[in-house]
Each structure stands twice: as structure tokens, then as C-alpha cells.
Amino acid sequence: SSERGRSKQPLSLYKPSAALQALRIAVNDELGALEQVLPAAINCLAPGGRLGVISFHSLEDRMVKQAFRKAAGKAEVEIGNKYDQWSLPPKSPEPKVKIITKRPIVAEDQERSENPRSRSAKLRFIEKL
User: Fold this and answer.
1) Which helix (H) or strand (E) holds 69?
2) How far apart are CA 8 and CA 29, in angstroms?
3) Are 126 and 99 in contact (CB under 8 A)?
4) 79 vs 127, which has greater pLDDT?
């Protein structure tokens, strides 16, 4: 059967599960809940406290990464808002956290073979300043 990109699942299995996942995300408002809980969790941390978030699909991971970058005072450039070589990016807010994991931690090959659900998991950490 045909394969989709890097996925090991046949395309015939991927499409229905992707559709069900999209439906579950929309019905449960999972992205809306994540959007609310991330800033609240960051604000609850005591100085030196750490927060780890496991995401299971790219939309979640992107939201986590952007929330962590925003809390760390990293300037964000909106898509379509390009700078020429002489202009400066917008001023970053004062950092509240330090990003511990520059890249997400993912399962190693052995873990993925023993636990197939771990293949999509990504773990990111921050520390409150």
C-alpha cells in the first residue's frame, strides 16, 4: 500500500484516523483549552519552577512552542510580515522563563518499537526566572 511521508502507516489507515483526530480536537476544543492553560500554568510557577508539556500532534506542539517562546521574551514575526535587511524586529517583552529544551525531546527507536503511541510525542520544558 502507499505510504505517507515519514509515517509508517499506510495511507488507507492514515486518512480515517486523521479525520477522527481532527473531529475529536474540534469537538473537545482541545486547542482552545491548551491556549488557556499554558499562560495560566506559566503564571503559577514559582521562580525556579519547571513546566513540562507533552504534545501529541503538530498543532499542539506549535502552540506549546509559541507560548514558551513568548514567555521567554522571544520576538515573534507573523507569517507574511517580513523585514527587510535594515529594519529591526519588534521589541520583545521581558522574559518570564528560560527555555530548557531548545528542541523537543522525542522517543528513541527502542521506545517507539516497544510503545508505538510514543512515536508522535514531543516533550518541551521551561523554567520560571
Assistant:
1) helix 58-71
2) 28
3) yes
4) 127
